[in-house]
Amino acid sequence: MDRSSPALSVIVACFHTHEWVVRAVSSALKQTVLPLEVLLISDDQTDYLKTLHEVGVPLDRVRQFDTGTVGAGCYQTRKIGFANARGDCVTRLDCDDSWDERYLECALPMVGQHGACLSPVKTVDLSGENEIRANGYHVLPRYAARQHLEVKEFIWLPFGWNTIFSRSLTRGLWEAGLNTDLTVEAEIFEKIGFVPFHPFRGYRYHIRPGSICHNPQAPYNIAQEYSDWLKRIELGESFGLSAALVGTLQEMLRQRIASIQHYLKDLEQGALQYTPQVVLDILLYPNRS
Predict the structure, then answer these.
(1) Is the pTM of this model over 0.85?
(2) Which pLDDT belongs to residue 246?
């Protein structure tokens, strides 16, 4: 692996996203340091290469694979992308998100040095022109100053993140119904011994009303997911993590469930009205107890 610029495979899960996939893929192909390839994983039996070709996006670095069904889920697209990746390292780029052109330039040297790099996302509206600020950014200066997090701190992160990591550090065990980006990456960071951190927010997380994460049902879905996750831990599952880190994960899930239930109670009683901002707070920045 080239330590200054390791070869990167970008996994893009595609599900009813013709309107935004061009922006996502174009942002990956306009990096000042180019990825080796972009892997489109179609989860709706659609030819996204045709969509890109029709608007002139170059396809020499783009390949497509399919889940073979409709709505298999992000976990399945991650697994297919990971299994077919040719790069030394991999990362995800959701189909309705985008990257600043300097994202890989900033992050890849740290991946080459340590095997992974975590960066905070920049949350923006659908157009990408307006930033949406939420809880959690007060911790960024502390992490930036020392350029790493402890693995337990990663479990408690109050803001969105994206990670680029070496394929050799994980078995890629994403699972249905769970936020196993977190457990897959926590396993990687435990192997490294810390979380390499770069403060540049080069991943733009676009809020798209009506998407899986931003609709009125989303808070209920995430509460159920967290509850199911907690039950599996209580039944003895470790997800490849040390006992100490499983304990941290268990504590985090309990607090997040309590926080989300607060929000849900306020929504149901009319103290809060549904907006994308409220769902953003529930899903990414829960801080109430």
Answers:
(1) yes
(2) 96
